[in-house]
Amino acid sequence: MASVDQKYTSYLFVLVAFIVPVLINIFNGSNGLTDLEKVAYYLENELIITIPIVLRFGDEGFNFPDLAKAVQIQLDEELNNTYTRLKIDLIDELEYSKTAKNETPIADQYTVELIHSEEDFIGIDSEESKCYIFYTLDAVHSNDLPYYIVQGIVHHLLLPEIWTFKQNKVPKKLIQSNSSYDILIMANSQEDGEVIEKELNGYFKADGLWDINISLENDTSSNRSNEFKVVLQSNSDKEDSSNKLAYLSIEDENSLSSVKKEIIKYLGISEHPSNNFKIKLQTLYRFFAIKLLGLSIEKLTNLENTTSPHLDKVVHSVFDLAAEFETSKSASWVPLFTKSKRILQQIESFDNQTT
Cα–Cα distances in Å, from 14 out to 8, 10, 17, 37, 313? Predict the structure, then answer.
């Protein structure tokens, strides 16, 4: 493949000038990096992710004409002190939500619902990407409501987002185009084992992110009918015992919850919010969309002396997708993750053909 700098200068000019003006500072650098390496640096150090969040009432509500504006100002200040590479686009539906009730929520949409209450507290929905702000009239009169909303968004609803990207690390076995894991359930009751299997299957379902294969096995060593043992292991590391999750006994519902927590810990996922796995998945799709594209760039750099029209097209796709990351204002990054994974698979397929 000819020098990337020479081959894609004109293409990058169009990309930068007309699609993502914010990238100009990255691509105009004169530090000797190739264009692909500059994209990799940008993804790792400069990319700002925008997440839209709807602000609405969960009850009849009140007239708060300037609330959304005040929340956006405080949100920007809080993120500037907490994590500067995240931007919240607050969507004001306070007036609309007074009359539009019982609507089916848009899939993967982040929402903050305000509910008048006898006390001030924050809650996270167990199924939807939703934060509840329960507030009193005292909070309104003291002008504390914007503060509570910001705390709910930054330190509860988007806590896994900020934690994951600030940590910027996961077990290396997850950074690949096809991550697969086995969960072995050892039970002396086939019926009870199937209940556990269904529960774990549904809980950890993540299309395209990983495959978790669950199998049952009779455990004749147990004398208790309600005892189970669970082990999880990456299929790519079957010979490495250090990657195995220790056997855990499940004796009741609380024990099953502990197993979920151990698997989450094993996978390197944020533990919070503890009652909502979907919010964590939304974060992971964004995180891995970026990481897989970075891995694609790394592999492309190793193929820089290879000439192929197909590979040229893949390089164009990398630039396009980096631009989409910057301009995306969607709550769900599943489509972007899918594109990123497909690019990596194309490169891996090409790499296999040439070796």
Answer: 10, 7, 5, 18, 16
Distance of alpha carbon 117 from its chain centroid, rounded? 32
- What does the pLDDT look like over 307-317, one tens digit per residue? 677 788 899 99
Taking residue 172's Cβ as centre, other Cβ atoms within 10 Å add up to 10
Contacts of 321 (CB under 8 A, 6+ apart): 293, 336, 339, 340, 343
Going by C-alpha positions, the residue among 296, 182, 184, 162 that lies closest to residue 230 is: 184
Q: Cis link prior to 309 (omega < 30° from 0)? A: no
pTM (2 decimals)? 0.81
The end-to-end CA distance of the chain, in Å, is 15
| Domain spans of the chain, in order of start | 4-46+283-354, 49-166, 172-267
CATH of 172-267, one of 3.30.2170, 3.30.70, 3.30.360, 1.10.443: 3.30.360
Please calculate the CA angle 328-331-334 and round it to the nearest 5 degrees: 80
Contact present, 336 and 51 (Cβ < 8 Å):
no
H helices within 8-153, ranges in order? 9-14, 24-27, 35-45, 67-82, 94-99, 137-141, 145-152
* pLDDT at residue 21, rounded to an integer: 47
248 membership: H or E segment, kind and range: strand 248-250
Quick check: 156 and 148 in contact, CB under 8 A? Answer: no
> CA distances (Å), 189 to each of 118, 146, 185, 228, in order?
47, 53, 11, 9
Task: Indicate if the pLDDT at residue 341 is higher than 50.
Answer: yes
pLDDT in tens, 150-161: 999 999 999 999
190-226 confidence digits (pLDDT tens): 666 677 778 888 888 888 887 776 666 665 555 544 4
- DSSP symbol at 236: G
The predicted structure's pLDDT at residue 353: 67
